[in-house]
């Protein structure tokens, strides 16, 4: 084979020299080789988008930094030991603050309730001298156990409404959603065993459905952002439109899941608005103290659809609140902490919690942009 424009055949070592020269130019980012090189030697195989880092001749810090490079950006372990220690101290301090406030607010009320109970017991024994104090205490404990089992006294009969069809359905919902109010629990061994398997399979199913509903809500947010950007042209920066759509989603969710349901609870349960709002947050956040529970007042008659509507509200409300909590986590965790391994700044990672765009969506001029799945061969992705 001859080089174009030359009458002399190439030296036998010339193709190997061209090969080494071409690899050196390609790895160093120089200009591409001239077209006549491909006539002498075969074209080299292009490097993979994410080659393994070369560690020969470089220091330990550079090696760690190279090993921390990820195709989706960011380092696998965020934060330093100092940051983790400060976070742990802040966590313990926050718990100490809550302990002090709850102790100050509820400690006095609990002591007063205990004193009133003792005064009522002594007054009952004083007015009815034939009563045995031990027998009275035993009767009170039996009433408490019966109430926890779902038995409610109504005149000369008992009401077992908690384990009816609607009550059992609501118990199933509170089980797989991990709310666990605590007012109702299985009493037989067979029921406890079935509850274990039911929760073991139902909780993952609920989390999958919760995640899917969250993504649907997120897609609706970005679809609304694209509509706003196309219709009103809110500036050239798509982030402004996305922030506006996210704010509207937060406000509308707060309205539908926290402001309107307490009004329904005020009408059906007879609670105050503050009690209904408190119940809404405690339920949707899966705290579930059990002090306020819908459909458990024996003195009221509830519609048939009431608990079914409340169950749907719990499902969609938990999806929305999980998005909000993940957004708060994303904002608190995106403070730019450095990596434990390489010391580099931590960048955003694909799949981090928060109101990020679902795959294949974008608010830029109303067009759907394809997400970047592979890095450019000549571009390094740093920590």
From TrEMBL:
The chain crosses the membrane at residues 86-105, 165-184, 196-222, 243-265, 277-297, 309-332. Residues 157-214, 252-331 form the Potassium channel domain. GO terms for cellular component: plasma membrane. It comes from the Eukaryota. Gene3D superfamilies: 1.10.287.70. It is found in: Membrane. Residues 349-383 are annotated as: Disordered. Its main location: membrane. One of its GO terms (biological process) is potassium ion transmembrane transport. Keywords: Ion channel, Ion transport, Membrane, Potassium, Transmembrane, Transmembrane helix, Transport. The keyword Ion transport applies. It holds the Pfam family Ion_trans_2. It is a multi-pass membrane protein. GO terms for molecular function: outward rectifier potassium channel activity; potassium ion leak channel activity. Residues 371-383 have a biased composition (Basic and acidic residues). Belongs to the two pore domain potassium channel (TC 1.A.1.8) family. PANTHER family: POTASSIUM CHANNEL SUBFAMILY K MEMBER 17, POTASSIUM CHANNEL, SUBFAMILY K. This is Potassium two pore domain channel subfamily K member 17. It comes from Ornithorhynchus anatinus (Duckbill platypus). The lineage of its organism: Eukaryota, Metazoa, Chordata, Craniata, Vertebrata.
